[in-house]
Specification:
Length: 465
């Protein structure tokens, strides 16, 4: 079966095709580096990662770009509160983001362009829109005139009947009810302090939407294959990206728009503004395994909401353990009598796995196929009906599936269980005033990349970053 994706633009599952033969160019809206990302955000990046990995699995060459938004209202106000420069402020969260990507085994994109390094490209785009009559200046800022772009609303399928011509919205984030001309370039305001650029469209800074149009087109071309993000970005962010890009280039911007549903907490979207969020760091500090978090975030199909619970996280960890035990046991298989049944099982599993993933990246079904394989092979192992070379082939197939899933990065899991028991041991040693043993345990843990911190509410640990 051919690879198919649900395209937000057409609200249908479409067969995937590429603009350039054998090559996919894709873009994911990256983080605004004003704080640590929460695991809801990472659902979006893990979804992008699964897409990236599966396209590679299918043999495509992939150019993957993810931007870093390092200038906006939130980064500016954060840096002002701390009295440090914008760059100094965002650097900390940029570094943390890349550490988190690594912990979650997210395959790096080729390019992570930063907004502040692409002001020139943004200004060029604004100038083009002005010259073509799609934009106008107003009190030092430049706005996009949505009335001038008749397809406006095609991505979010909005009803434009109530639009008030000429109404303007200055903030980057707003609801459908507030749809209006939006800011491409924001004229300098006292509250921006020292953050501004002197440009041909005035002194100020870019709006958020123009950042993504300028950076995606710079690295992927005017017309590229796939653009992703969470469903909350459909309107206004992606709608505005289309309006800006297509008006400027007079070409179709993106063929496939893919959007992931939200990670929820008790029926509400996990969000900074609701205060119902966990950062990856919060969970690692509590001793959870990063790959178990990855498992939880990818085990549900990306277009369905997932409810975050600690029970769910525990179940994800147990599923992973089952997988790790299975691969461990396969490595120990000794028999030399090959079983022809194995090849059939592997062929069927591969066909089923690919059918699930080809069907709009159905990871939950793909995991079902993987665990059916685990069950079938476990049975043959118990019955001693598997040779060591069969076992090697099973491991190869699992490895191939894992190139798309990214779950077999297991050092963390081993470290975690050991860490817990060593910490307990050290607490006991300290209680018994055996400081020599306590120090030795601390040293052993450091060798494993774990740093302990004794605080008033107990011993905490973290991975050395
Ligand atoms: P932001 O930093 O708010 O622009 O979000 C970064 C990415 O995370 C975007 O693609 C959002 O759509 C996505 N996102 C934010 N909250 C959630 C959530 N609770 N579940 C899934 N994705 C989310
Ligand atoms: Zn974006």
């Amino acid at each position: 079966m051919a690879l198919r994706f649900f395209n937000t633009l057409t609200r249908t599952k479409e067969e995937f095709y590429t603009i350039h033969p054998g090559e996919v160019r894709m873009y994911t809206c990256g983080p605004t580096v004003y704080d640590f990302a929460h695991i809801g955000n990472f659902r979006a990046y893990i979804f992008g990662d699964i897409l990236h990995r599966y396209l590679l699995y299918k043999g495509y060459r992939v150019t993957y770009v993810m931007n870093i938004t390092d200038v906006d209202d939130k980064t500016i106000s954060g840096s002002q509160k701390e009295g440090i420069s914008l760059n100094e402020y965002t650097q900390r969260f940029r570094d943390a983001f890349f550490d988190d990507l690594k912990s979650l085994n997210i395959k790096p994109a080729q390019i992570y362009p930063e907004a502040t390094a692409h002001i020139k490209e943004m200004v060029e785009l604004v100038k083009t829109l002005l010259a073509k009559g799609y934009a106008y200046a107003n009190e030092g800022s430049t706005y996009y005139r949505i009335e001038s772009f008749s397809p406006y609303g095609k991505l979010s399928h909005m009803d434009k009947s109530g639009l008030k011509a000429g109404a303007r919205v200055a903030s980057d984030e707003y609801e459908k009810e507030q749809v209006a001309d939006f800011a491409l370039w924001k004229g300098w305001d006292e509250k921006d302090g020292g953050v501004f650029w002197e440009t041909e469209v005035g002194k100020g800074r870019p709006g958020w939407h123009i950042e993504c149009s300028a950076m995606s087109m710079k690295y992927l071309g005017k017309h590229f294959d796939i653009h992703t993000g969470g469903v909350d970005l459909i309107f206004p962010h992606h709608e505005n990206e289309i309006a800006q890009s297509e008006a400027a280039t007079e070409e179709k911007f993106v063929n496939f728009w893919l959007h992931n549903e939200h990670l929820m907490v008790e029926g509400r979207k996990m969000a900074k503004s609701f205060g119902n969020f966990y950062t990856l760091r919060d969970l690692l500090q509590k001793g959870y395994y990063p790959i178990a978090i990855r498992y939880l975030l990818l085990a549900t199909h990306y277009r369905q909401q997932v409810n975050f619970t600690f029970d769910g996280l525990e179940a994800a960890k147990n599923a992973l353990k089952r997988l790790y035990d299975f691969t461990d046991n396969l490595k120990l298989v000794k028999g030399d009598k090959d079983n022809p049944e194995i090849i059939q099982i592997l062929q069927k599993a591969t066909a089923d796995f690919e059918a699930a993933m080809d069907d709009d990246l159905n990871t939950s079904e793909a995991l079902g196929v993987l665990f059916t394989l685990v069950k079938d092979i476990n049975r043959l192992m118990e019955e001693k009906k598997i040779s060591s070379s069969d076992a090697k082939q099973v491991l190869e197939t699992i490895g191939k599936f894992d190139s798309a899933l990214g779950l077999l990065k297991r050092e963390e899991l081993i470290v975690d269980d050991e860490v817990k028991s060593l910490i307990e041991k050290r607490i006991t040693a300290r209680k018994e005033k055996d400081f020599k043993l306590a120090d030795q345990i601390r040293g052993d843990l450091e060798d494993k990349g774990i740093v302990l911190e004794d605080t008033s509410d107990g011993t905490k640990w973290k991975r050395k970053m």
